[in-house]
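Listing S7. Sequence submitted for prediction.
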Amino acid sequence: MSAAASFPQTIYFVTDVELDGPDPSRNSMISFASAALDVERGVVGTFEVNIAPLAGRSPDPHTAAWWATQPLAYEASTHDPRAPEEAMIAFADWVESFAGVRVFASRPLMLDGVWIDEYLRSFAGARVFGAPWEGRRLFHGAGLDIGSLLLGLFGWSYAQAHDVSIPADWLGGHEHTHRAIDDALGYAHVLHRALRISAEQPKKNEDFRNVPA
């Protein structure tokens, strides 16, 4: 048995959000989806929900104008919305149904992660980011930014990692439609492929962890 086999199973929750504006203090999250990824088995579960806009907030005009160019995605993101508290508690319960080390992942982390963290904190007593606090601890650590992983894997510049268009085969046939579940599944396929490529690379002498093969 290799040393790696002694580590707990890791599940990556690859998550995509859809919004009616850029500001979590003024606008609302209208939809999100998450694909639970096991590196050995692939996607082992999905979660998708549309959320009613928050009281006292209004859509950003520029975002609304952009959504007007995406009528099918907007319809998919807004029909049959659930109350925010109901949606986020259901999501937290779904995440906790998976055993092992649970890791939040997205592209970019500082968009999807910040919005999900805000809604979890506000409506489910939970957080995305695993800093010490007294609420529900759904995830381990600070989350994984998929673009940053690609940067380290291929030696890209920062701009290349965060502005690159992902090829269709890397998205696993999941077209980036701005429907949350399509985009989450596509990025889950990107992460799965990147992690498998990383695992197949030879061990590096510079690895200060010096983990046995």
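Caption to Listing S7: primary sequence and predicted structure tokens for the chain studied. The two ends are 10 Å apart (CA to CA). The chain has seven helices and seven strands.
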